[in-house]
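Structural biology now treats backbone shape like a language. To illustrate, our science desk offers a sequence and the tokens encoding its fold:
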Amino acid sequence: MGFWGIFGKKEPPSGQVARDRLQMVIFNDRLKISPQVLDMLKSDIIKVISNYLEIDESGLNIELDTKGRGGDPVLLADIPIKSVKRR
């Protein structure tokens, strides 16, 4: 039993984890998006959203995924909001 088994959570099979990682490598290769471009995209998103919302940047997670319809790329953003900025 792994660490998470103590808390009743099941670990994904190692084959599934490896498959998901390989899919992300292939996906990023097809899109030709470098890690630097992803960092710039993340910075731009933070800048725009920060104009309207106070966000918790430490909990921010932005990533590309292939879980869209038909395997189309999607941009997933998990942005914790502290409050709405009043103008």
Observations:
- The mean pLDDT is 79.
- The longest strand covers residues 61-65.
- Residues 34-87 form one domain.
- Residues 48 and 79 are 12 Å apart (CA to CA).
